[in-house]
């Protein structure tokens, strides 16, 4: 396996593992009646984005698109893989062979800027959920979810390091 193939494989496995970690977190929150992002809304936003519509007054009231739930889920995992690739690109192959927690947590926390300053405003919730009834709580929830994503990056990297030998 060459370095490029190893980078791609590790990005896929680490990103998918970290994304699955936050999906498990979302299921736990759901048990306590705490909602998370409806991936159909992410898919709907992406579907309208290709038509040139960047933001919505309310994504829930925007015209649905065919396959929006699948588009949302695919995007969710693709974004997780992309963030894992960023982690690997910044920290290099040595980190992937012997993962440490801090770089993964930093990437997880930094990625919280994406929902707070891009997705939430585009969906009609405002910057850092400012147009929602509980903006501080929603922002903390986003930050916590992305911190857990960082923990998932670390755990998935450990698992991947054990599965794929260093080349």
Question: Would you give an account of this structure?
Answer:
- By secondary structure, the protein is mainly alpha-helical.
- It has one domain.
- Helices cover 72% and strands 0% of the residues.
- It contains six helices and no strands.
- The protein has helices at residues 3-31, 39-49, 68-97, 101-110, 113-123, 135-163.
- The radius of gyration is 17 Å and the shape is globular.
- The model has no long low-confidence stretch (mean pLDDT 94).
By DSSP (H or I, 4+ residues per run), the number of helices equals 6
Q: Quick one: biggest sheet? A: none
Unreliable stretches covering 5 or more consecutive residues:
none
Q: What share of the residues lie within helices?
A: over 70%
Mean pLDDT: 94
Order of helices and strands: HHHHHH
Outline type: globular
Total count of strands: 0
Estimated radius of gyration: 17 Å
Report the oligomer. Answer: single chain
Structural class by secondary-structure content: mainly alpha
- Tell me the distance between the termini: 7 Å
Tally the structural domains.
1
Binned strand content: under 5%
Summary keywords:
mainly alpha; single chain
Strand-helix topology:
Blueprint (H helix, E strand, L loop, with lengths): L2 H29 L7 H11 L18 H30 L3 H10 L2 H11 L11 H29 L4
Short précis:
This protein is mainly α and 167 residues long.
